Amino acid sequence: MKSLFPLTYILFLCIAFVQAVHCQEDKIAIGLIGDSTVAPRNGWGDGFTELVKEQATVLNYAVNGATLDSLSGRLDTLLQTKPDYLIVQFGHNDMKGYDAQVYSEKLRDYIKRIRDAGATPIIFSPVTRRWFDENNKIKPKVYSGRTLPAYAQAAKNVAEETETLFLNLYALSVNHHNEIGPQESYSYNFRPNDRTHFNAKGGKVMAGLILDQLRILLPELRDEDPYFPEAKDAGARSIKLTWYNGRVRPTSVTVFRDGKKIGSADPATCTYVDQDPPRGNVDYRLEFVLPNGATVSLASNFPGRPEDFKGELGILDPTHNDGINPGTFKQWRKGDPYRLMFVSSAKTDATSSDLSTYDAFVASLAKKAGIGGSWQVFGGGGNPDDIKAHTQTDKQNYPDKIPVLLIDGKTRIANNYDDLWDSKIDAPINRTETGEVVKEGVVFAGTAPWGLGNPKRVGIGDPTAHNGKWRWVSAGTNNPQDKQRVYAISEVLNITLKD
Length: 499
Known about the structure:
This protein is of the alpha+beta class.
């Protein structure tokens, strides 16, 4: 009995070892060679290793202070491990020792040796340093008259010339840091003033950006399921849907548009072209059936072409706020309501208490400018309630998800009526019916509490006031005999789609 325990234990270890080897064989091997921005502890290599541990074994041979020259022998050692792929990223230290032409020659040599050894090379352009200019944009450091972008371009050129897989890590990292800004970028620093190397947070973020791109290049790093569907303008009124298959190709792909089946796609091509889509915003859904019978459903949206969206006056450009309707915080859709405002180019006195007088005044200006429609003066008889009643901007009595935009159709004044009357607006009402910008002046508004037609004083507004300033409608008073501008607001308009 005593001898059975060791035998059983040894048998268990053998089974575990065989299982472990089998799992390892299912993974691909990825070699990394480069400088300190890739190396363990202060580069992105550790974060990358962690992110791909289920799909790949990573062999990180990067070294602090390395150049293509200094790691030439280490490359041979790495190649002896027989990696499937080998990622090469140099430049930070090379630029201090030789120009981009010499760098290119040495990089070509690496690519040849990697291929001769039976591995697939992948060139990365060098990751950016985190130095910013006065506009909070990445500014390349200069060493002996050389800058990192030149080496990034050289890496790209060699990749194209040698037909090697390429990831433009320089551009990817520059765009990332320009987007998040200096303060967040500096939180990646390995040490407080180290704007080159990464702490654990920075390394993992950079590794995540890299992995997102590598999954496009390497099917082995993808999940089992299809992913990343996109809907793009394919010209001639058609829309092209594309996606990436996972490591397992679907057996069938069914395409739905706005909830209705419109066709099937060839799983091998990863594309489907909708030849006759409706105008405007379109929702797609792709339904994938995998070999094991499982179904995966992925959604994609085509927001529409700018020319598809026009208001009743032909003004609205939905590029405002990335095509988002500020009233609903969703994509603009056919029938969505909105209103427009302008400040009059001409001036009038404020002696009449009949608001229809001013309505006719702003309507004539709109008509003369060629925008037509029904317009009202944005003014009243002595307090905001009068203006709300006259212009139907009282949220208690009128729908309150109607955004108010400037006459250009792009600039948001308010998300809705409540936002319009919360003591601030998002942009000054400083454009006339012809689109001209008013830089200063006075507007008869009829508030504070002197209404239009008051024989002594009339409340005025400031067309340049916004962002927390109630002065856009309440900036004091003026003599009603004077001639000043007035605000105008359109009727409720609706998005239409061109035929």
